[in-house]
Amino acid sequence: MNATRALRGFTLIELMIVVAIVGLLAAIAYPSYQAQVLKSGRADAKVELNNIAQRMQRCFTSTSTYKPDEGVCAVVDALNAAGGILSKEGHYTLTISDHDATTYTLTATVVAGTRQANDISCERFTLNQAGQRLAFSASDADTTDDCW
């Protein structure tokens, strides 16, 4: 055997440096990833609010009121039921308020226990019959510009 032949491989220090770098990159990337997941979850509220607003408009077109008698418009009945309507992804509960013959306000509120419950900056979305969109944080601050 040749005694001058060098052994090749990684030292423990080199491996520890690589692990530290990977850990640092993960620590930086994970919060950004979480923020993107929450941001994408907001689409559940927005899509459902717009869908229900369209259904409300169809009811208004056929009955000339946003508040028809019970049994005439299924979406109004569902919104007035206890608990409102659960969004397709299950992250938001949709309810109606300020509801009369010519006005309404739809509200999407985050469901406790879902991943969106961590989105305290965009906890509640609203949409009214005039198309006005608002968003509110957990502390009721207006966060429309950041959330919509």
From TrEMBL:
InterPro entries in alphabetical order: N_methyl_site, PilE-like, Pilin-like
Keyword Transcription: no
Keyword Transmembrane: yes
Transmembrane spans: 12-33
SUPFAM superfamilies to which the protein is assigned, alphabetical: Pili subunits (SSF54523)
Superkingdom per UniProt: Bacteria
GO biological process, any: type IV pilus assembly
Keywords of this entry: Membrane, Transmembrane, Transmembrane helix
Name by which UniProt lists this protein: Prepilin-type cleavage/methylation domain-containing protein
